[in-house]
């Protein structure tokens, strides 16, 4: 925020292209909004505001994929009551089926932040 010659506050105006560039940088895997904001000399709260507005506008403008519902909603979950055989080793994998034919399987020792990055990338496709 700058001050004019009369001492009044004057807010900086950011070009839309630069806002999109900054928001895009925050969407990179492993990116921190605070770090990106510091790099561009912008308040992190301002970046969050731009990000929310631009992502909402993008989701409204983008046509829904043919396999996805037009409106966000609940997705069905199927639970099976399989009793593992004591003679077989216990399978501690989780399988996640996503739209677009993607399937992600993770074992007991998965790294949560890495899985979140993978799911974020697949969600954007």
From TrEMBL:
InterPro entries on file: Transposase_8, Trp_repressor/repl_initiator
Ranges in a coiled coil: none
BP term (GO), one: DNA transposition
Molecular function GO terms recorded: sequence-specific DNA binding; transposase activity
Pfam families: HTH_Tnp_1 (PF01527)
NCBIfam families: IS66_ISRel24_TnpA (NF047595)
Protein name in the entry: Transposase
């Amino acid at each position: 925020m700058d001050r004019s010659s009369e001492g009044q506050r004057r807010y900086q105006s950011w070009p839309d292209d630069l806002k999109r560039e900054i928001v895009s940088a925050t969407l990179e895997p492993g990116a921190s909004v605070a770090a990106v904001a510091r790099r561009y000399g912008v308040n992190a709260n301002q970046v969050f505001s731009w990000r929310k507005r631009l992502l909402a506008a993008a989701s409204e403008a983008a046509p829904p994929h043919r396999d996805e519902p037009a409106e966000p909603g609940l997705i069905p979950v199927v639970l099976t009551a399989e009793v593992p055989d004591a003679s077989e080793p216990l399978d501690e994998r989780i399988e996640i089926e996503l739209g677009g034919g993607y399937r992600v399987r993770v074992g007991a020792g998965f790294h949560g932040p890495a899985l979140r990055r993978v799911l974020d990338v697949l969600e954007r496709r």
